[in-house]
């Protein structure tokens, strides 16, 4: 049976604008880490022919993720929505952590770099790297994963209870901006107690306003937030983000502001038809973006060091590291992320129904079968949400159909 939702999806073309934003965000992160971050982490890896110092890609991914959380959390069973999100993120992440950990340990003695411990591995697998100075990031770019998982959990918890609707929503949005700033400058300073630092950093309070931006843009597309209110909110978030870094990286904040204008245009305006001729490569690059994000940084540093030892020049190292990110990103997408998500989402509802059937109370003294569980199992290709990526790689296949019916 063709529902109104699937009919809308069949009538609505996929929007190229979201793919473009994803590509710009993820691949700017790749270039920024190769040309700017690698000489900071390992001085011998620089310089490169040019440097991209602007840090805006990861923030962009979190805003996009929050926007599509709003689009999709309202549809169907919240538990299944959450399971689908986690099932897309975690398998590829776990594989990437193990591979990066193994490679880092193998080359640490040879390069004189930090040797990650088994404790580091466990902390990274359980997404608690930021909660203690005793833990070290296997790959520092993974900071977005705990933030994104936390946002999914909160959305799944709060939405069914109505806490993200009505008059409380604008108050919540502004609290995401103001409260972390107060904590930052009142308590979370260099001499603060470690538990304060751990809580602030572990909860990523300096980044939670980014999810508020995604929610605010979605509200604006639904005519529940005025354009003036949205503009004021975006400016406030940009100022707050710059303040969290003590105003030492204002150019990155300005670049992020420009990208926010693009996100607003993609959400509320027409599709960017002028780029239709580049649909296939843009869509392909966007489709593997989560995998690229997972493997590009620390493994890229290792490759750059090997190439440097072989006498390869700056341009060669730049192209090789970028190509490696794309190749490995494609591999982890094709071999891990997509098949794991298909397998888990196909079996997850069945396993949940099996469990409920065994804990369900029996009908009273009739000897009848247990009360039947009622999960409506969704097909694997049911529309899904963004990650964050990071956001995840195949999400854009679903986003565009939903965006064209929800975002006008």
Question: Would you spell out the secondary-structure blueprint of this structure?
Answer:
Layout: H1 4-11, H2 16-41, H3 57-73, H4 78-111, H5 118-125, H6 144-158, H7 168-186, H8 194-202, H9 208-221, H10 227-244, H11 250-268, H12 279-287, H13 289-295, H14 298-309, H15 314-359, H16 395-406
Structural class: mainly alpha
- The ordered string of helix (H) and strand (E) elements is HHHHHHHHHHHHHHHH
The termini sit apart by 26 Å
Number of helices: 16
Shape: globular
Low-confidence stretches: 1-12, 361-408
* Share in β-strands: under 5%
- Tell me the major beta sheet: none
Q: Total number of β-strand segments?
A: 0
> How much helicity do the residues have?
55-70%
Rounded to the nearest angstrom, the radius of gyration is 22 Å
What is the residue-mean pLDDT, rounded to a whole number?
A: 83
Explain how this protein is built.
- The protein has 408 residues and is an all-alpha fold.
- Helix 2 (16-41) runs parallel beside helix 13 (289-295).
- It is globular and about 60 Å long.
- The chain starts with a helix and ends with a helix.
- It has 16 helices and no strands.
- Residues 1-12 and 361-408 have low confidence and may be disordered.
- Helix content is 67%, strand content 0%.
């Amino acid at each position: 049976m063709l529902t109104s939702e699937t009919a809308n999806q069949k009538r609505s073309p996929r929007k190229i604008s979201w793919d473009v934003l994803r590509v710009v965000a993820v691949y700017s992160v790749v270039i920024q880490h190769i040309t700017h971050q690698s000489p900071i982490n390992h001085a011998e890896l620089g310089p490169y022919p040019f440097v991209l110092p602007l840090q805006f890609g990861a923030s962009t991914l979190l805003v996009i993720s929050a926007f599509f959380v709003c689009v999709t959390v309202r549809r169907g069973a919240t538990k299944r929505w959450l399971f689908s999100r986690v099932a897309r993120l975690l398998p590829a992440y776990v594989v990437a952590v193990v591979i990066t950990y193994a490679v880092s340990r193998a080359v640490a003695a040879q390069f004189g770099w930090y040797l990650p411990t088994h404790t580091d591995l466990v902390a990274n697998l359980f997404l608690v790297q930021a909660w203690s100075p005793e833990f070290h990031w296997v790959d520092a770019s993974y900071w977005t994963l705990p933030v994104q998982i936390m946002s999914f959990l909160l959305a799944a918890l709060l939405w069914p209870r109505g806490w993200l609707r009505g008059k409380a929503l604008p108050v919540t949005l502004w609290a995401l901006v103001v409260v972390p700033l107060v904590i930052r400058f009142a308590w979370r300073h260099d001499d603060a107690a470690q538990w304060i630092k751990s809580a602030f950093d572990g909860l990523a309070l300096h980044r939670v306003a980014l999810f508020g931006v995604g929610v605010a843009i979605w509200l604006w597309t639904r005519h529940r937030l005025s354009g003036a209110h949205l503009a004021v909110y975006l400016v406030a978030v940009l100022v707050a983000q710059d303040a969290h870094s003590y105003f030492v990286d204002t150019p990155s904040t300005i670049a992020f502001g420009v990208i926010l204008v693009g996100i607003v245009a993609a959400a509320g305006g027409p599709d960017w038809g002028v780029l239709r001729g580049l649909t296939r490569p843009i869509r392909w690059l966007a489709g593997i973006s989560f995998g690229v994000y997972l493997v590009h940084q620390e493994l890229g540093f290792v490759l750059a060091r090997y190439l440097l030892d072989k006498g390869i020049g700056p341009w060669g190292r730049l192209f090789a590291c970028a190509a490696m990110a794309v190749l490995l990103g494609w591999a982890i997408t094709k071999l891990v992320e997509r098949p794991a998500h298909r397998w888990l989402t196909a079996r997850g509802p069945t396993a949940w129904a099996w469990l409920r059937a065994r804990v369900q109370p029996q009908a009273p003294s009739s000897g009848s079968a247990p009360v039947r569980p009622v999960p409506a199992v969704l097909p694997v290709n049911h529309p899904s949400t963004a990650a964050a990526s990071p956001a995840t790689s195949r999400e854009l296949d679903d986003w565009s159909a939903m965006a064209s019916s929800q975002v006008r």
